[in-house]
Design a protein that fits this description.
Length: 348
């Protein structure tokens, strides 16, 4: 790891001069612009980063926990943040929100890492961040002995702490609920084919169908990368066939609500013509007609568990009731509302 002394040796100046330049205090001691530029260039070229982070973590002085959300800020991200802060506040820690664009370049990585290390973060928690970004962050933070946490069902780099939800169980519960209402042809729609959470929900769908003695036809698993409108169009085409499903399970509440509206414009009513189940339990699911039956994903509880695990890793002191494993999966459950009902007579 590059130190201030290494830069001083390369620049032919004192360690104090380098410290003044890199801390932004060079004007107080009248260091020339040419010397400043040379030191800053060497620091950049040599890959130097201020290493206050590891020191502060080891002494317990660091009071910031970073959070990076690849999908932006939404209802469920806010719930995770609320859960984290409820655990961090009593310990005197605060959250620092970080940002990366959807397709980050090298300058974006450098900016994020400089901010993270400059803020002396006690750790970084990521949600819905791509595999490539996670691998890059894991390498950088591991070099500073700083914990990295993943709070979502996503790719897990080696050594990262993880808190997720039991998505497979939630989808299986949705299928069992629909089968209990009399549905025999049930389809599932995902907008994220191949993603870890989509694969988990597919397993839950197949498991639930098998447990109810139902067959999964090829047409019953709809994968669509082209967005919600294309997925809704495909679902509509399927519903117009003679062997149409009588119930649809969506991999998110946003998709489920959009599908209900889309079908309504086509005079296909929920739940009279087709039952619809969402996933997530976002707040707006109770403000539509019909209200949305959905799988509850415990975002706030996930945030709490993640904060506890990160504090334990950063300080060596167990937070909460017990020590944490590196991976923890929280239960989901089904919330039954008005968007599911018995299939039309003769449509079973």
């Amino acid at each position: 790891m590059i130190t201030i002394q290494d830069i001083a040796d390369a620049a032919g100046v004192s360690k104090g001069t380098v410290s003044y330049v890199l801390s932004g205090k060079h004007r107080k001691v009248k260091i020339s612009d040419a010397t400043c530029a040379r030191i800053q260039r060497l620091a950049r070229d040599m890959g130097y980063r201020a290493n206050t982070l590891a020191r502060d973590v080891s002494t317990g002085d660091s009071r910031f926990m970073g959070f990076l959300a690849g999908g932006g800020k939404s209802d469920f991200v806010q719930a995770i943040l609320d859960g984290m802060q409820s655990e961090l506040d009593p310990r005197g820690y605060s959250l620092r929100l970080l940002h990366l664009p959807p397709q980050p370049g090298e300058a974006d990585y450098e900016r994020l890492l400089d901010t993270a290390l400059g803020y002396r973060l006690a750790g970084l928690v990521c949600h819905s961040v791509s595999r490539g970004v996670l691998l890059r962050l894991q390498r950088e933070f591991a070099a500073h002995d700083v914990p990295l946490g993943i709070v979502s069902n996503s790719y897990l780099p080696r050594g990262a702490l993880h808190v997720g939800s039991n998505d497979a169980h939630g989808v299986a519960l949705a299928v069992e609920h629909l089968a209990g209402l009399g549905h025999r042809r049930i389809a599932c729609i995902t907008l994220s084919p191949g993603s870890p959470f989509a694969l988990a929900r597919q397993r839950g769908f197949r498991r639930g169908m098998a447990a109810c003695g139902l067959t999964v036809r090829a047409m019953d698993w709809i994968e669509e990368r082209g967005g919600a409108t294309v997925a809704c169009t495909r679902a509509l085409a399927l519903l117009r066939t003679e062997i149409a499903p009588t119930a649809l399970v969506c991999d998110g509440d946003t998709l489920a609500l959009g599908l209900m509206s889309f079908l309504g414009h086509e005079r296909i009513q929920t739940p009279e013509d087709v039952s619809v189940v969402g996933f997530g339990n976002f707040g707006f699911g109770t403000h539509v007609v019909p209200t949305l039956t959905t799988v509850y994903e415990p975002f706030r509880e996930m945030g709490q568990a993640m904060a506890q695990a990160m504090l334990s890793a950063a300080t060596g002191v167990t937070a909460g009731d017990a020590a944490f494993a590196r991976r923890r999966i929280l239960d989901t459950h089904l919330i039954v509302r008005d968007s599911t009902g018995r299939p039309r007579r003769g449509a079973e």
